[in-house]
Amino acid sequence: MSTSTPTGSHPVVETRIQEPEPAPEKKQSILRQPIAVWAIAFACMVSFMGIGLVDPILPAISKELDASAGQTMLLFTSYLFITGIAMFFTGWVSSRIGVKTTLLVGLILIIAFAALAGASGTVGEIIGFRAGWGLGNALFISTALSAIVGAAAGGSSQAVMLYEAALGVGMAVGPLVGGLLGSISWRGPFFGTAALMAIGFIAIISLLRAPKKDASAPVQKHAFTAGLKALKDPALRVLAFTALFYNFAFFVLLAYSPYPLEAAAAKHGTEFGAHELGLVFFGWGVALAIASVFLAPILTRRFGLRPVLFAMLGLLAVMMACAAVSHESVVALIVFIVIAGLGQGVMNTALTETVMEATSLPRSIASSTYSGVRFIGGAIAPAVAGPVSDAVGAGAPYWMAVATLAVSILVLVFGGHLLTRAQRPHETAVAEAEAITRGAD
C-alpha cells in the first residue's frame, strides 16, 4: 500500500492489490509417463538394437553358411541402403497415413523380415530380408520421436530425453544381445528381434491413441520429392556429404572390425566368438551413448559446433590409423574401438545439430534428407571393406576410413562459408529435437 498527497488536496489513498505469485510448477518425473510412451520407447530401443545386433554374429554366419566376409558384411549394406533411400520419402508417407499407422507398418515390416532372416538358408536370402528390415526401420524411426512427444506427460523435454535414452540403450545393448543369442545360434538374434518387436507392436496398437484432429488446423502434407529437392540447399548439401564420408568410416569400424578381432585372437591361440564380440561392441555402444547424450552438449556449447566437428573428425582419423597399424593386437583394437565410440557419439550429435541450424528448410525435411545421405554412406562401407581387405590386407579398410574422414574435413573446410547460420547462438538440444518433431521452420 502507498500514499500520495497532491498539492491543495486532501490526502488520497491509493491501494494496489498485489496478486499472489504463482506457485512454482512442480517438475514431473521422467519416469511418470503413460504406458503408451513406454511402449513406444521399448520399440525404439529394439529398433536401434537392430543396427548393431548382427555385428557379433557376422563371423558365425560366414562359417555356417560358407560365405565370405565381404558377403556377410552386405547384411549392413542392404539394411542401410534401403533405410537411407526410404528416408527421403518417409515424410511424404507419414503426412498422409498418420504417425500411428506409419509406426505400425514399420513394425510389421521389421517383424516379418527379421523372422524371415532367421529362417534363411543362404546368406543371399538374409541380405535380401535385411533390406526389407531396413525399410521398416526407416518408417518406424522417422516417426517414433513425434509419437513419443505426442503421448508423453511433462512436456516435450521429457519425451526427448526418453527417446535419446532409448536410442542410447538400443545402440549399446544390440551387440550384447546379438552376442548372447548368437553364441547359441546365429539365428537367435533375428528371431529375438522379431519376438521383441511383436511385443512392441501389440503394446502400441493397444495403448497408443491417434491424436484428435483439429478441423481448423491445416494438414501439412509434404511433396513426394521434397526430400530429394532439399539437396539443392547448399548448406544441407555440404553437411550431408560430410556425413556421407564420415559414416563410411563409422561403419568400417562397426561392420568390419569383428573380422580382424577374430583373426588377431586366433593368431594368439584365443577363441573370440559371438559372445566376446558382443561384449566389445557393448563397450563401444555405451561409449557412444554417453558421448551422444552427455558429452556432446557440453562440448558444443563450450567450443561451438564447427570446432567440435573438426576435433572429432581428427580424433577418429587418429583412432582409425592406430587400428590399421595395430590390427594384429586384440587389446589395442578393443581400446581404439571404444575410444572411437566416444568420438562418434559426439560427432553424431554435433552433426545433427549443425544440420538443424545451418538451413532454413523445414526441420523434418532437412533431418530426413541428411539421414538418407548419411545411411547411404554407411551402406557403401561394408560392401567395399571386405574386398579391399582380401586384396590389400587387413589394415587397408581402416586406412580407407582415414582417407574418407580427411575428405569430410576438406568438405567442411571448403564449404564452411555456407554454414554461417550455424554460428549463431543456438537452441538447446531439447529445443532442436522438438523442432525436428514438429517440422517447423
Please give the structural blueprint.
Blueprint: E1 2-4, E2 12-14, H1 35-52, H2 58-64, H3 69-87, H4 90-97, H5 99-118, H6 123-151, H7 156-182, H8 188-207, H9 226-229, H10 234-256, H11 258-267, H12 274-303, H13 305-325, H14 330-358, H15 363-392, H16 396-415, H17 429-438
Antiparallel strand pairs: 1-2
Helix pairs in contact: 1-6, 1-7, 1-8, 2-3, 3-6, 3-15, 4-5, 4-6, 5-6, 5-8, 6-7, 7-12, 7-17, 10-14, 10-15, 10-16, 12-13, 12-14, 13-14, 13-16
Membrane topology: Multi-pass membrane protein
Biased composition (Basic and acidic residues): 16-26
Region (Disordered): 1-26
Features:
two-stranded antiparallel sheet, Growth Hormone, Chain: A, mainly alpha, 74% helix, 441 residues
The largest sheet, given as strand count, sense and whether it forms a barrel, is: 2 strands, antiparallel
- Give the CATH superfamily: MFS general substrate transporter like domains
Count of DSSP helices? 17
Radius of gyration using CA atoms only: 25 Å
Shape: globular
Distance between the termini: 48 Å
The count of domains is 1
The percent range for helix content is: over 70%
User: Could you tell me the strand content as a percent range?
Assistant: under 5%
H/E order of the elements?
A: EEHHHHHHHHHHHHHHHHH
> Overall pLDDT, averaged?
81
The fold-level CATH name is Growth Hormone, Chain: A
Strand order of the largest sheet: 1-2
Q: Judging by the overall fold, what is the CATH architecture?
A: Up-down Bundle
**Tell me, what is the CATH class?**
Mainly Alpha
SS content category: mainly alpha
Find the count of extended strands (DSSP E, 2+ residues): 2
| Uncertain stretches | 1-26, 424-441
